[in-house]
Amino acid sequence: MGIMDSFEIGREGVSVHGKRLEIAAKNIANMDTPNYVRKIPVLNATEDISFHGLLNTMKEDVFGVGTIPFLSGGVKFSGLVEDPTEGEKIYRPGHPDADEYGYIRTSNVNPMVEIGDAVLANRAYEASLSVLSIAKTMANRAIEIGK
Considering its fold, how many domains does the chain have in total? Predict the structure, then answer.
């Protein structure tokens, strides 16, 4: 793994966890919006890091070439899914979003869950910034050694 790989992993982390923060903020902002459905971000590893995937990689590299494979890591944003939990039904016959029976469905956003998700995303964002900072320091030290 080179220094540029470290920059790429840090960049991906900052981008993905920044999107997580945006989604949590949007969910909290729409907490009182009738019929709003909570959005959940879907994150995946950039490489197959399962045991099966590692064995397949080793089969190709270790037994063929004689080297142990290196997985670079990283995360990617794969999209959004909607929370299937339904919000509470409230009887408001004059509301513009009411159904034919006069009921509206409240948002299914739980503020405590969203705040917890936002805290986790914030910590992951800070960790990604630390990766970028450490990679920058390593690159600067390498330049100093070369002088």
Answer: 1
